[in-house]
Amino acid sequence: MAILVLDILTTAAILFAVSAGLLIILGVMKLINFAHGVNGGVKPGHAAAQKSAS
User: Fold this and answer.
1) Any idea where the domains of the chain sit in the sequence?
2) What is the value of pTM for the model shown?
3) How many CA within 13 A on the CB side of residue 33?
4) Three-state SS across 13-46?
5) CA angle in degrees (0–180, nearest 5) for 36-49-43
6) Which own/partner pairs from 44-53 qualify as long-range (CB within 8 Å, at least 24 positions apart)?
7) What are the pLDDT tens digits along the chain (54 aa)?
């Protein structure tokens, strides 16, 4: 039982480290930022956003 818990915690830690690293790298590169939505960096009031919405 203890080995199973340790295995789950290890897997969770690895997945967290990978996802946090990708979030930091992609955030610094301004490639994808899920916190602001994935819309190519176009702000909602921008003309390109209004064109794509219609």
Assistant:
1) 1-33
2) 0.54
3) 10
4) HHHHHHHHHHHHHHHHHCCCCHHHCCCCCCCCCC
5) 35
6) none
7) 999 999 999 999 999 999 999 888 877 877 666 666 555 555 666 555 555 555
